[in-house]
Amino acid sequence: MASLSDFAALLPSLSPGERAQVLKWVVQDMSGSFPGIDSRPEVCGGEPCIVRTRIPVWLLVNARRRGVSEQLILASYTSLRAEDLVNAWAYARSHVSEIEEQIRENEAD
Questions:
Q1: CA–CA dist 92, 65 (Å, integer)
Q2: Is the Cβ–Cβ distance between 84 and 50 less than 8 Å?
Q3: Fold of 34-108
Q4: What would the pLDDT profile of 42-67 be if each residue is shown by its tens digit?
Q5: How far apart are CA 105 and CA 108, in angstroms?
Q6: Which residues fall within 8 angstroms of residue 29, CB to CB, at 6 or more apart?
Q7: 69-109 pLDDT per residue, tens
């Protein structure tokens, strides 16, 4: 695992956009909330979904694992934006076991 000094040494080599992305990840990790992702009991049984939709994050992650490109996902779900996929992937990275369990549960049905 990288140390704090490793990150400090890497920081100057990042572009402003990359630094902003790192900051976004840190804020998300510390706050536990993810922009563009919503969980409500009355929507998809409380599974985390893309806001404005009923599309669960696990469904998008599973499609990606099966080799479906982001372009095809966006074409298939016209209410999705590229930003929604970025938010879904960030959420999935921080909630690996939760997403794995949701995929298992929904594939068993």
A1: 12
A2: yes
A3: Arc Repressor Mutant, subunit A (1.10.10)
A4: 988 999 999 989 999 999 999 999 99
A5: 5
A6: 94
A7: 999 999 999 999 999 999 999 999 999 999 999 999 998 86
- Tokens standing for residue 55: 């599309």
pTM: 0.70
Residue 44 in tokens: 């998809």
Place of tokens 């409380």: 46
The structure tokens listed for 28 are 């998300």
Place of tokens 């929904």: 106
Rounded Cα gap, residues 92 and 64, in angstroms: 12
Cα(57)–Cα(99) distance, integer angstroms: 8
The larger pLDDT score, comparing residue 30 to residue 39, is at 39
